[in-house]
Amino acid sequence: MKHIFIILCLVVISFQVFSQAAKDLTQKGRELYEKREFMEALLNLNKALEVDPNYAPAYYMRANIKDAFDDRHGAMKDYNTAIEKNPKFADAFFARGNVKMKLQDYYGAISDYTSAIGINENYVEAYFKRGKAKQFLQAYQDAINDCTKIIQINPKSMDAYYMRGILRIDFGDMKNGCLDLSKAGELGDLKAYEVIKERCNQKSQESDGSY
Question: What kind and span of H or E run contains 204?
Fold first, then answer.
Protein backbone atom coordinates (compact mmCIF):
# COMPACT_ATOMS: atom_id res chain seq x y z
CA MET A 1 0.00 0.00 0.00
CA LYS A 2 2.86 2.31 0.89
CA HIS A 3 4.52 1.63 -2.48
CA ILE A 4 1.30 2.45 -4.33
CA PHE A 5 1.02 5.74 -2.44
CA ILE A 6 4.59 6.67 -3.36
CA ILE A 7 3.98 5.83 -7.02
CA LEU A 8 0.81 7.95 -7.04
CA CYS A 9 2.71 10.86 -5.50
CA LEU A 10 5.42 10.58 -8.13
CA VAL A 11 2.79 10.53 -10.90
CA VAL A 12 1.12 13.66 -9.50
CA ILE A 13 4.46 15.46 -9.17
CA SER A 14 5.46 14.50 -12.71
CA PHE A 15 2.12 15.75 -14.04
CA GLN A 16 2.57 19.06 -12.23
CA VAL A 17 6.10 19.45 -13.58
CA PHE A 18 4.97 18.75 -17.16
CA SER A 19 2.01 21.13 -16.82
CA GLN A 20 4.24 23.93 -15.53
CA ALA A 21 6.76 23.33 -18.32
CA ALA A 22 3.99 23.49 -20.94
CA LYS A 23 2.64 26.66 -19.33
CA ASP A 24 6.09 28.31 -19.33
CA LEU A 25 6.76 27.37 -22.96
CA THR A 26 3.33 28.64 -24.00
CA GLN A 27 3.90 31.93 -22.20
CA LYS A 28 7.24 32.28 -23.98
CA GLY A 29 5.47 31.53 -27.25
CA ARG A 30 2.87 34.19 -26.47
CA GLU A 31 5.56 36.79 -25.78
CA LEU A 32 7.35 35.96 -29.03
CA TYR A 33 4.04 36.09 -30.92
CA GLU A 34 3.37 39.58 -29.57
CA LYS A 35 6.85 40.59 -30.80
CA ARG A 36 5.92 39.11 -34.18
CA GLU A 37 8.73 36.56 -33.92
CA PHE A 38 6.42 33.89 -35.27
CA MET A 39 8.83 31.07 -36.05
CA GLU A 40 10.42 31.17 -32.60
CA ALA A 41 6.95 31.35 -31.06
CA LEU A 42 5.88 28.31 -33.05
CA LEU A 43 8.90 26.31 -31.88
CA ASN A 44 8.08 27.03 -28.25
CA LEU A 45 4.44 26.09 -28.70
CA ASN A 46 5.36 22.83 -30.42
CA LYS A 47 7.65 22.01 -27.49
CA ALA A 48 4.83 22.81 -25.07
CA LEU A 49 2.59 20.31 -26.82
CA GLU A 50 5.31 17.69 -26.84
CA VAL A 51 5.53 18.08 -23.07
CA ASP A 52 1.75 18.14 -22.53
CA PRO A 53 -0.42 17.19 -25.54
CA ASN A 54 -3.54 18.20 -23.57
CA TYR A 55 -2.55 21.83 -22.89
CA ALA A 56 -5.34 23.79 -24.61
CA PRO A 57 -3.72 27.29 -24.47
CA ALA A 58 -0.79 26.04 -26.59
CA TYR A 59 -3.15 24.86 -29.33
CA TYR A 60 -4.93 28.22 -29.14
CA MET A 61 -1.73 30.24 -29.50
CA ARG A 62 -0.49 28.03 -32.32
CA ALA A 63 -3.80 28.51 -34.10
CA ASN A 64 -3.39 32.29 -33.79
CA ILE A 65 -0.04 32.06 -35.56
CA LYS A 66 -1.46 29.87 -38.32
CA ASP A 67 -4.34 32.31 -38.77
CA ALA A 68 -1.85 35.20 -39.03
CA PHE A 69 -0.28 33.35 -41.98
CA ASP A 70 -3.70 32.71 -43.57
CA ASP A 71 -3.52 28.98 -42.83
CA ARG A 72 -7.27 28.78 -42.22
CA HIS A 73 -7.42 24.98 -42.21
CA GLY A 74 -4.51 24.65 -39.77
CA ALA A 75 -5.88 27.35 -37.49
CA MET A 76 -9.34 25.75 -37.47
CA LYS A 77 -7.83 22.38 -36.59
CA ASP A 78 -5.92 23.79 -33.62
CA TYR A 79 -8.90 25.82 -32.38
CA ASN A 80 -10.98 22.64 -32.60
CA THR A 81 -8.44 20.78 -30.48
CA ALA A 82 -8.22 23.62 -27.95
CA ILE A 83 -12.00 23.48 -27.54
CA GLU A 84 -11.96 19.67 -27.28
CA LYS A 85 -9.36 19.89 -24.51
CA ASN A 86 -11.21 22.73 -22.77
CA PRO A 87 -14.92 23.10 -23.70
CA LYS A 88 -15.10 26.31 -21.60
CA PHE A 89 -12.39 28.08 -23.62
CA ALA A 90 -14.32 31.21 -24.62
CA ASP A 91 -11.41 32.83 -26.50
CA ALA A 92 -11.00 29.72 -28.65
CA PHE A 93 -14.67 29.80 -29.65
CA PHE A 94 -14.33 33.50 -30.44
CA ALA A 95 -11.17 33.02 -32.50
CA ARG A 96 -12.69 30.10 -34.41
CA GLY A 97 -15.69 32.30 -35.12
CA ASN A 98 -13.33 34.90 -36.59
CA VAL A 99 -11.87 32.29 -38.94
CA LYS A 100 -15.37 31.31 -40.04
CA MET A 101 -16.17 35.00 -40.65
CA LYS A 102 -13.18 35.22 -42.99
CA LEU A 103 -14.50 32.16 -44.81
CA GLN A 104 -17.95 33.83 -45.02
CA ASP A 105 -19.47 31.06 -42.90
CA TYR A 106 -21.69 33.54 -41.06
CA TYR A 107 -24.05 31.03 -39.46
CA GLY A 108 -21.09 29.02 -38.17
CA ALA A 109 -19.46 32.20 -36.85
CA ILE A 110 -22.65 33.20 -35.05
CA SER A 111 -22.76 29.77 -33.40
CA ASP A 112 -19.18 30.14 -32.12
CA TYR A 113 -19.72 33.70 -30.88
CA THR A 114 -22.87 32.52 -29.10
CA SER A 115 -20.85 29.75 -27.42
CA ALA A 116 -18.25 32.30 -26.28
CA ILE A 117 -21.02 34.51 -24.86
CA GLY A 118 -22.55 31.50 -23.13
CA ILE A 119 -19.26 31.05 -21.27
CA ASN A 120 -18.70 34.77 -20.66
CA GLU A 121 -21.89 36.83 -20.81
CA ASN A 122 -19.88 40.08 -20.83
CA TYR A 123 -17.75 39.14 -23.84
CA VAL A 124 -18.11 42.47 -25.65
CA GLU A 125 -16.01 41.52 -28.70
CA ALA A 126 -18.15 38.42 -29.26
CA TYR A 127 -21.35 40.46 -29.21
CA PHE A 128 -19.81 42.91 -31.67
CA LYS A 129 -18.60 40.28 -34.12
CA ARG A 130 -21.87 38.36 -33.82
CA GLY A 131 -23.65 41.58 -34.67
CA LYS A 132 -21.44 41.97 -37.76
CA ALA A 133 -22.22 38.42 -38.86
CA LYS A 134 -25.94 39.07 -38.42
CA GLN A 135 -25.56 42.28 -40.42
CA PHE A 136 -24.10 40.30 -43.32
CA LEU A 137 -27.17 38.04 -43.13
CA GLN A 138 -29.41 41.14 -43.03
CA ALA A 139 -30.78 40.08 -39.63
CA TYR A 140 -30.84 43.74 -38.65
CA GLN A 141 -32.97 43.60 -35.51
CA ASP A 142 -30.90 40.76 -34.04
CA ALA A 143 -27.71 42.69 -34.83
CA ILE A 144 -29.19 45.82 -33.22
CA ASN A 145 -29.92 43.78 -30.08
CA ASP A 146 -26.26 42.72 -29.89
CA CYS A 147 -25.14 46.35 -30.14
CA THR A 148 -27.61 47.31 -27.42
CA LYS A 149 -26.16 44.59 -25.17
CA ILE A 150 -22.66 45.99 -25.71
CA ILE A 151 -23.87 49.46 -24.74
CA GLN A 152 -25.44 48.04 -21.58
CA ILE A 153 -22.07 46.52 -20.67
CA ASN A 154 -20.03 49.52 -21.80
CA PRO A 155 -22.05 52.74 -22.25
CA LYS A 156 -19.01 54.45 -23.83
CA SER A 157 -18.55 51.97 -26.69
CA MET A 158 -18.45 54.27 -29.70
CA ASP A 159 -18.10 51.27 -32.03
CA ALA A 160 -21.39 49.82 -30.77
CA TYR A 161 -23.20 53.14 -31.19
CA TYR A 162 -21.75 53.53 -34.67
CA MET A 163 -22.75 50.06 -35.81
CA ARG A 164 -26.18 50.30 -34.22
CA GLY A 165 -26.67 53.63 -35.96
CA ILE A 166 -25.87 52.14 -39.36
CA LEU A 167 -28.06 49.12 -38.67
CA ARG A 168 -31.01 51.23 -37.58
CA ILE A 169 -30.78 53.39 -40.69
CA ASP A 170 -30.61 50.28 -42.88
CA PHE A 171 -33.57 48.87 -40.96
CA GLY A 172 -35.56 52.05 -41.64
CA ASP A 173 -35.27 53.72 -38.22
CA MET A 174 -33.66 56.92 -39.47
CA LYS A 175 -34.17 59.10 -36.37
CA ASN A 176 -32.72 56.67 -33.80
CA GLY A 177 -30.01 55.60 -36.21
CA CYS A 178 -28.85 59.18 -36.65
CA LEU A 179 -28.99 59.74 -32.89
CA ASP A 180 -26.73 56.71 -32.41
CA LEU A 181 -24.29 58.08 -34.96
CA SER A 182 -24.34 61.41 -33.12
CA LYS A 183 -23.51 59.61 -29.87
CA ALA A 184 -20.68 57.72 -31.59
CA GLY A 185 -19.29 61.04 -32.81
CA GLU A 186 -19.67 62.56 -29.35
CA LEU A 187 -17.60 59.66 -27.96
CA GLY A 188 -14.83 60.29 -30.50
CA ASP A 189 -15.72 58.42 -33.70
CA LEU A 190 -15.26 61.23 -36.22
CA LYS A 191 -16.29 59.10 -39.21
CA ALA A 192 -19.80 59.04 -37.71
CA TYR A 193 -20.19 62.70 -38.68
CA GLU A 194 -19.35 61.88 -42.29
CA VAL A 195 -22.18 59.32 -42.31
CA ILE A 196 -24.50 61.88 -40.69
CA LYS A 197 -23.71 64.33 -43.50
CA GLU A 198 -24.25 61.71 -46.18
CA ARG A 199 -27.33 59.95 -44.87
CA CYS A 200 -29.04 61.88 -42.09
CA ASN A 201 -28.91 65.51 -43.26
CA GLN A 202 -29.62 64.62 -46.88
CA LYS A 203 -32.70 62.65 -45.85
CA SER A 204 -33.87 65.52 -43.68
CA GLN A 205 -33.46 67.99 -46.54
CA GLU A 206 -35.39 65.78 -48.93
CA SER A 207 -38.30 65.41 -46.49
CA ASP A 208 -38.38 69.18 -45.90
CA GLY A 209 -38.29 69.91 -49.64
CA SER A 210 -35.28 72.21 -49.17
CA TYR A 211 -31.99 71.75 -51.04
Answer: helix 202-208
pTM for the predicted model, two decimal places: 0.84
Q: What region, left, alpha or beta, does residue 67 occupy, with left being phi > 0 and alpha being psi -120 to 50 degrees?
A: alpha
| Long-range contacts, 68-72 (Cβ 8 Å, 24+) | 68/38, 69/38, 72/99, 72/102, 72/103
Helix, strand, coil shares of the chain, percent, nearest 5, are: 80, 0, 20
Q: Are 199 and 191 in contact (CB under 8 A)?
A: no
C-alpha dihedral, 96 to 101 to 106 to 108, nearest 10°: -10
**Total Cβ atoms within 10 A of residue 205:** 11
**Which of 143, 202, 206, 201 minimizes the C-alpha distance to 171?**
143
**Average pLDDT, whole number, for the chain?**
88
Q: Report the distance separating Cα 66 and Cα 75, nearest Å.
A: 5
pLDDT digits (tens, 9 = 90+) for 185-205: 999 999 999 999 999 987 444
At 20-68, the pLDDT tens digits run 788 988 999 889 888 889 899 999 999 999 999 999 999 999 999 999 9
Helix H, strand E, coil C: the string for 147-201 is: HHHHHHHCCCCHHHHHHHHHHHHHHCCHHHHHHHHHHHHHCCCCHHHHHHHHHHH
pLDDT confidence tier of residue 6, bands split at 50, 70 and 90: very low
